[in-house]
Amino acid sequence: MVIKITKKLNKGNKIEYKSSKFILTPQDIKNADTFDLELSQTIKKIEAYLLKKKALSRDKKKLDPLLVWYTVGLEINEFIKKHKIEKDDERFFWYQFYNLSTLLHKKNLAKVFITRNDFKTALLITKFSLKTIRKVGPWTMWRDILLYKVLLNDERLLKYVVDYLIKKPKTVHGSRPFLKAINERFKRMETTLLPDKILFKKIKEI
Amino acid sequence: MSSPIFRQARNDDKNLEAIADGYKTKIDHEHWLVDGLQKDAIQNSWDARIDKKRGLGWECGFGLLNINNEKVLCIKDSGTTGLNGTKFYSELEMGKILIRNEKGEDLAYFLNSDWSAKSIEEGGNRGRGKFLFLYASRNKRIFFDSFRSTDKEYLFGDVYLDSDKQIKFKIYYGEEAKNVFKNFIDGKQTLLSSPGTRIFITNPNPLIEQSIQTGELFSYISYSRWEILKKYHAKIFVYDGKEKKYISLPVWYEDKEEDENNKKYELEIIKSGTDYKIKRLVLRYSPNLDLPETIRGIAIQRGGMTIERVKADELVHEEGMTDIYGWLEMEEKKSLENEMKNNCEGPEHFNFSWTQKPAKYLRDYLRNRIRDFAKELKIVSSEQAKRNKTQRSAEMEALKSLLPLFKKLELFGKHKGRTRKKGKRKENEPLRLSSPDIIFPRDNRRINYGEIIKNAYVVPINDLDKSLMVLIKVFLLSKEGKEILIEEKEINLSKNTKINIGNPSLMITKDFKQGSYTFKAKMISLEDTDLVLSDGTKIEQSTKIYERINLKFYIETEPDESGKFPFDFQPKPSENKQLLFDWESDGDNGYIVYYNSIHPKIKPLLLEENPDILKKYLIEQGALIAYQIKLEELVADNNNYDKDFNSLIKAKDLTKVLPFLIKKFSEFIWDLNN
Question: Does B587 touch chain A (CB under 8 A)?
Fold first, then answer.
């Protein structure tokens, strides 16, 4: 896949077409332009919806961060499913995503996205319903949860954490010792190799 | 006594493998089969076009079909002559045709191996490409039909590898051919209505389907066939089972106005005293366009196809060469093209042997032209550029020499890494992995396409008396986080286990994207034990026992060393007499240390050819500045570092600063010179 990238430079924008594999035929460029147009329309659609729902303000304030990120996650998910984006091209995709979304983040965070990508986190929360997400806690808590590799590597652990935090609601601060304990217990393990029964036995032993 | 005459029996299965191996070696990427297939198929079709001059009415394409619930790759052309030539009905008749070796016997040549009477200007003339069709079929069977231009005859044929390892075929003509064809295609395909040929590869290798679905076949065709796309507006298509798409000319090869970044050289003799003449050499410099790896270099064209791309950076070892691309066309039917094809070109049409004449002359000519081009563009070797290079090298070498001091002062660049705790190296874990024999082609761990990482394996070690079931996983991790598995193995690891897990000869093919990678390995327990790791972790089922194999290397790129230094030297010409050195923070990147390049102390150093003189000066001054920067950071952050610094800061006595710095500086210079 070829992705169009708009580099914002002081002397004006510079358009580049990037791809990990493909060479540029006019067809590739046409496809990239169509893809880019669709991406910008998707982002505009998300922003318009969120403004209407009063989850987002015109001065880039997130009034309902969970709804913002959940909506963003759902839409990106759909978009990614529709356009097969290869792992090697993902960085170009995210780069352009940051470029095109004007209301969803405060600064041009194109550099930040490599280490911390809120859009990617948004993708992860869509595994659950908005209702469940709200029950667990605020966006800051979700960001904490999804920072732990052990939870990202094994869906069963993530689901356990979600269920636990719904059953025993905690504040952002209050959830940290619990998340830390889970992480400590499993950080040295390749839990995906464990059958359900053994994994849950080990969780209960914490 | 007389003996019957025996015909030597060939093992065609092995022959197919050997020919395929030839392609695999020459095309070093995962999709070598489809790349080889497209090149040969299109070349054969292009050679058979009816309108030789303009290619009008010619079309060729690849399509995925489903015939009788079986996947089939169909290669179809039209505007071609079809399989003309004498019809034969027995082996004897066929043998006579082949022996005559006359032009126009396409049918007999197509169905037999190593018989081909193609002229030199035609692309393929060795007749081995068709073997690849058969190899591409998992059940080693292809069908074909053809509508001939000469006698409007219809043909249908069935070629297969029989159980006796011999390639055999059946051939039908006229009405019979049409009837057999109709049975074969189950009514889904219509008969050809104009001259042309179709080849049906049954049950094709799944990688072929994959490369059609992902669009990679599109890329392969456009980068090897751009010349006929450009000159003849050739129609080549790919049908993925849903949509038929025509291939267009890559932007890199579109016509452009000649300017300093785009030079054309025409009808030049490449070696004096010979008549080897090129038709056209085009060189383009494209520093800002992010040139794709596949386009880099000079495409050497013959018969309308790219045979090989010669990288400019392999010919001229200067910076900026990777941004040069272009192409070279030879005069048709003249000595250079003839001899390049006959003496130097590989049978797969993917490479030249550059040590043979005239390929050697052509390579020398290319080198000279690229150097001239680069000089005109001022990307190499102007006196100023050379001086800049010497200067840059002195700056970099000075930073490398200062690295121990930076580490001692705990000054880090943007790639901070972890601060190693002082003390001895960690003791060996009783259960561990080792990669003792791995060898990269260069000390700086740069590796280019086609090169090999030797002994890319790990050795699992168990110093305990007890054996343990473990899973060993050896893999590469790209900068983007993509895992590439090398080998995964479950073993019962005991003191006596002697095994290498990985790849003794890991070839870096073009499937790897340019950039940095890490060679990694981990050992995971597959059982619960009462053993405990050195950090107190109990070993149980799925515990990651060891994962400390991390060897970074760089594919087709130089390692970025600048990030590990806390500062960077930069020249700053200034008439200000008071300025010899100056420094300022560069955010996360550390500091920029400026040196006044027109200061009478520094100016003569820059005129020296030997970079060591400037290097020495920069080391000495850099050391002093490093101490000053450390002091500034400690004061600003209110941090502790060591007792000497702490007592100086606490004393708040300005008169002590210079003696302190001189003392530290002297100590460093002593060590450096000792």
Answer: no
